[in-house]
Amino acid sequence: MQGDAAVLRRATDQSGGGPLAWVAGPLLPAARVLDVCCGSGPLATELPPGRWIGVDPAPGPGPPARVRAEPTALPVRTSGVDGIALLLALPRLPDLDGLFAELRRVLRPGGTLVLLVPSAAGRSVLGLRLASTLTDVHRHWTNRSALDRAGWLLAAADFAVLGDDRVAFSVPLPDASVARELVDELPRTGLWPSAVPAEVRDRALAGLTRLARPGRRLPLPMRRLVARR
């Protein structure tokens, strides 16, 4: 689902770390990691060579090599992988029961599942000023429960939740041209819903443009859940 991973590579936290390395951390011990709805495969460079397997409904051209597959019909044998990553896809998927059943099937007992989902807006001044605009954007998720109740969904699907953490990542917002790029990129990346009505998108663009200035950064808070089969 990470159709445009550039924003994930630009995003940093206060210490300079990025979300891709944050997601990869719990998966580093795994011998085989299945990246479900991998998009362009940005997670591949964060894992040791030969351990990453990417699948996506529409993988597109170019490296790394990926397999075309739906998340509810994975081309992997039962208990065939040691780790699974699902980056910024859960709120966009319609069949969560089918998804979790398939993840349980392919993940070996004791294996690690890492989810990354957008988090609630932070308490920064800019976050508060954008709150009403972002509320309009976020009401268009396919599965809003995958944001608000992601931990509960994992537990209900028989995964043991080991960690549930939030980090306030951000990207530069220096001018109106970058604001326009972000309004295009964020839905493709999975940080915003993909089907935002045009009038909501226009209001979001106007809000970001109004606040853009050199040195300013747009908050992109994210939530990482780590679970075990």
Total helix count?
A: 9
In the residues, how many domains can be counted?
1
Radius of gyration: 17 Å
Helix- and strand-based class?
alpha/beta
CATH superfamily placement: Vaccinia Virus protein VP39
Number of strands: 7
Largest β-sheet summary: 7 strands, mixed
CATH architecture: 3-Layer(aba) Sandwich
Residue-averaged pLDDT: 91
Helical proportion, percent range? 25-40%
Distance between the termini: 23 Å
Morphology call: globular
Uncertain runs: none
Strand order of the largest sheet: 3-2-1-4-5-7-6
Short description:
The protein is α/β, with parallel strands linked by helices and 229 residues long. The protein starts with 5 loop residues before the first helix and ends with a strand.
What is this structure's SSE topology?
Elements: H1 6-10, H2 19-24, E1 33-36, E2 52-56, E3 66-68, E4 81-87, H3 96-106, E5 107-118, H4 125-129, H5 131-138, H6 145-148, H7 150-156, E6 160-172, H8 176-189, H9 198-211, E7 217-228
Parallel strand pairs: 1-2, 1-4, 2-3, 4-5
Antiparallel strand pairs: 5-7, 6-7
Helix pairs in contact: 5-9, 8-9
Folded structure, characterized:
The protein has 229 residues and is an alpha/beta fold. Helices cover 32% and strands 24% of the residues. Strands 3-2-1-4-5-7-6 form a 7-stranded mixed sheet. α3 (96-106) links the parallel β4 (81-87) and β5 (107-118). α5 packs antiparallel against α9 and α8 packs across α9.
